[in-house]
């Protein structure tokens, strides 16, 4: 049961990259349940089709599945063009597509580093840029980027992701200032460890998850619904004066200085 009004996003159109799985999927389902039509975008059709079908069946809202690689500007422009053509408008962009794996910096190849930068940082830029030119510049709207807290300190095994998410934060702040006057709010959410996600499976085994639960100040892992509720708030008019913010939802973990648990996850892998 949502605390938000059922029709909060009625007839708005939202593009969600990485919308087939994990956090992106949770956001897509919730926005549809609150009245939006969604377009979900991913490289992998198998990730998209079940989610788009579930959205249509459970909410009665339109949901478009778009196969595209956020690293490829031409594919992104074509996908954004389809959203406007088939769904009629584009009010909100959620940049949730991301790449991650644990790897000690000394072992990381140039292509491994570049691949994550390309997906997270260039992908966020490619999608935001295409949406701006196709719709947002003339009509206003909102962009929400999914960032992280890994770059607030030094997180072992995450040099590529830390660099990529720092770039996402920089994009968030810069575009908020440049595009704010055109009625476009740009914000980010920085989740801590969120259970039942691909990121969690890649970053910490169950033993680390159990330790995290004891260390996180609120004594639980994050849930997809935590990110979803914050998303609904930031996209709503209740957050009309919030622009260029990166809002952390991690139960206080990054304040407690315990991100070095990742060093243990790395050791447990080797
Ligand atoms: N450790 C070290 N290097 C790795 C790696 C790992 N676990 N996984 C991939 N790489 C390297 C590859 O070796 C390659 O570099 P190389 O050419 O020098 O060998 C480079 O990264 C690209 O790998 P590739 O598999 O070709 O890229 P891809 O585009 O198919 O996949 C990834 C992108 C690597 C980010 C992949 O993990 C992915 O698709 N992730 C999406 C889902 C995800 O990460 N979700 C969690 C988000 S929090």
UniProtKB/TrEMBL annotation:
Record-level GO BP terms: fatty acid catabolic process
Tell me, what is one Gene Ontology molecular-function annotation carried by this entry?
Answer: 2,4-dienoyl-CoA reductase (NADPH) activity
Q: Name one Pfam family in it.
A: adh_short_C2
Residue ranges constituting the Ketoreductase domain according to the UniProt record: 12-192
Is Cytoplasm there in the keyword field?
no
**Keyword NADP, does the record have it?**
yes
User: What are the record keywords, sorted?
Assistant: NADP, Oxidoreductase
Indicate the family of this protein.
Answer: Belongs to the short-chain dehydrogenases/reductases (SDR) family.
Task: Return the protein name.
Answer: Ketoreductase domain-containing protein
């Amino acid at each position: 049961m949502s605390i938000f009004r059922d029709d909060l996003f009625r007839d708005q159109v939202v593009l969600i990259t990485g919308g087939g799985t994990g956090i992106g999927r949770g956001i897509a389902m919730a926005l549809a349940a609150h009245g939006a039509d969604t377009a979900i975008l991913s490289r992998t059709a198998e990730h998209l089709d079940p989610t788009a079908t579930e959205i249509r069946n459970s909410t009665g809202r339109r949901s478009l599945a778009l196969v595209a690689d956020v690293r490829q500007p031409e594919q992104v422009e074509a996908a954004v063009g389809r959203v406007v053509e088939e769904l009629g408008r584009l009010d909100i962009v959620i940049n949730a597509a991301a790449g991650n794996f644990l790897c000690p910096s000394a072992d990381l190849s140039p292509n491994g580093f570049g691949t994550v930068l390309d997906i997270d940082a260039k992908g966020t830029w490619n999608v935001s840029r295409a949406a701006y030119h196709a719709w947002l510049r003339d009509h206003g709207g909102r962009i929400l980027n999914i960032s992280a807290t890994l770059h607030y300190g030094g997180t072992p095994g995450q040099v590529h992701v830390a660099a990529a998410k720092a770039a996402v934060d920089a994009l968030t702040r810069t575009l908020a200032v440049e595009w704010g006057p055109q009625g476009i709010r740009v914000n980010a959410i920085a989740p801590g460890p969120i259970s039942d996600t691909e990121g969690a499976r890649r970053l910490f085994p169950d033993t680390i998850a159990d330790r995290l639960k004891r260390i996180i100040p609120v004594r639980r892992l994050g849930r997809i619904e935590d990110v979803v509720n914050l998303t609904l708030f930031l996209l709503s008019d209740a957050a009309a004066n919030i622009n260029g913010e990166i809002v952390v939802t991690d139960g206080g973990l990054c304040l407690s200085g315990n991100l070095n648990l990742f060093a243990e996850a790395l050791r447990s892998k080797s």
